[in-house]
Amino acid sequence: xxxxxxxxxxxxxxxxRIADVSMGTLRVIFIAKGFKYYAPIVAxxxxxxxxxxxxxxxxxxxxxWLIIVYGLGFAVGxxxxxxxxxxxxxxxxxxxxxxxxNYKEILGALENKNYLLTVVNAGYKKNTAKxxxxxxxxxxxxxxxxxxxxxxxKVFYSVEDVRKVSEEDDNYNEKxxxxxxxxxxxxxKAK
Length: 191
Prior knowledge:
With 191 residues, the protein is α+β, with helices and mostly antiparallel strands. It has six helices and four strands. 20% of the residues are buried.
């Protein structure tokens, strides 16, 4: 058995696919969120890694094991890209709460944490509910929802990604990603 053809090369292709597919996932997210300077950098490394992996498969096309690990690497890379994006949680999100009870307590709790809120009366024919909207960093979504759920776990909410906030300058995304990379620890809980 040839160690290189049946062990080393398949492992290289497997891990190369994990890396380039994970980078591809991040690249698409960077594009969607307006990280115009980082998406091309990630794209460069993604394409170089992909080219190295595919060239090795084409040079060794008679080895069926390479095709299998290529597909496995793609699958694992897709999962790891999604996992990595969830851990990084770059950008901002809008959270909307529809509150029917405990309105004042929820507002007070959110205001105590210095969240900027927009409140609108809602309900058909009667003002039976309040719609509370706020924009926050994606890393803080769980914390905001937990504040509300601690007071009333039956509050309906929705979360949407926000591409840009008017208070930010045009380089906000680039500044925030550099700061975030410096502070990145995927295993600590959001503050």
